[in-house]
Predict the structure.
Amino acid sequence: MLRTTDEGRSWRSSDTPIASSASSGIATVAFRDDLHGVAMGGNIAKPDTFTMNVAVTSDGGVTWEEGTPVPFPGAVYGSAYSLDNGRSALVAVGPKGAAISWDDARTWTLFDTGNYWSVGMGKNGRGWLVGPGGKIIRLDQPIAP
């Protein structure tokens, strides 16, 4: 993982616990503030396998630790935070489902088993999930469980 603190003039690398190979690695990164974020991905060659596919940081990406894997098999393709009044919800999507976490990827709730490629979130748990064949899903998920 590469990070910059000077608008791209210099870069530093950090190791993550997500395996990297020709078919695996990090596919998405999301931060809820300057310090707290997630990196997610996995192995696209193993769509039916549960793997360690979530890394978390609480120091702005200087260090990364294993997070709790999402509750669907395969890789995570997209992730996004929704923020409201100091509370947050994190949504992760992939070809085997969509899940939400209200505690920075410590626990997850699976809410769909469809095929999704990306997610964008706004305030108050509102967002959009997109997938193959022009699929677009509107999400209205409350911030708190």
